[in-house]
Amino acid sequence: MAQLHFTRRLSDNLLQQTLQMALPQLRVFPWALLLGEEPMEFNSGNPAHVFFEVTESGIPHYTQQLNLYRTPESDWEERALWLGQLLSVSCNVEVLVPFTHPEKPDNPFYNIVFRNGESYLADDSQTEFGEPDAKPVRVLGPYILPPVQFDGAGNRR
Q1: First vs last C-alpha separation in the chain
Q2: Cβ–Cβ under 8 Å, residues 67 and 53
Q3: Which residues contact 101 (CB under 8 A, 6 or more apart)?
Q4: Which residues of 55-74 are buried (b: 16+ CB within 10 A; e: fewer)?
Q5: Angle CA(65)–CA(13)–CA(66) in degrees, nearest 5?
Q6: Burial label, 8 (beta-carbon count in 10 A; 0-12, 13-18, 19+)
Q7: pTM
Q8: Are 122 and 137 contacting, i.e. CB atoms less than 8 angstroms apart?
Q9: Which stretches of 56-135 are DSSP H helices?
Q10: Which of 17, 39, 64, 145 has a 20 to 30 A CA-CA distance from 83?
Q11: How crowded is residue 31: how many other Cβ atoms within 10 Å of its Cβ?
């Protein structure tokens, strides 16, 4: 699963088009899980059918959360970062993606923030999620991610 947070609301249609462009060998469906009904053409037996759900984000400054399901399990974090960067540029939106810092893998408070495709290390240790007056996620500075590529089915090249 990939989890991404956006600073503004993006339509399901825009997200579906952008994700479908990034993963052309998969069929991407929007699905509001809490509302129940699965998309008409979605086939859970077909591994090429993936879906996303959009909800409210509990992170201050980030209004919308996207969860993408049924992508390959391997390289899930790298894929989420790759998609975050792509969506940041394609949709002209700031994107926050949870991140495991390679030098501090036990610290759960790191994130990567993408602004116009540029990556920044961020820290949410002082942020109280879901609180209206909470401190925002603190951007620590630019952070260079190792280059990574994925094929049209979401597998690392």
Answers
A1: 18
A2: yes
A3: 107, 110, 121
A4: eebebbebebbbebebbeee
A5: 15
A6: exposed
A7: 0.94
A8: yes
A9: 76-90
A10: 39
A11: 19
What is the residue-level pLDDT of the chain in tens, covering all 157 positions? 999 999 999 999 999 999 999 999 999 999 987 666 778 899 999 999 999 999 999 999 999 999 999 999 999 999 999 999 999 999 999 999 999 999 999 999 999 999 999 999 999 999 988 787 788 999 999 999 999 999 999 999 9
Rg of the chain over Cα atoms, rounded to whole angstroms, equals: 15
Residue found by looking up tokens 């925002």 in the block: 136
Pull the structure tokens for residue 47.
């591994």
Query: Look-up: residue for tokens 């049209």?
Result: 152
Q: Which two tokens stand for residue 143?
A: 């952070």
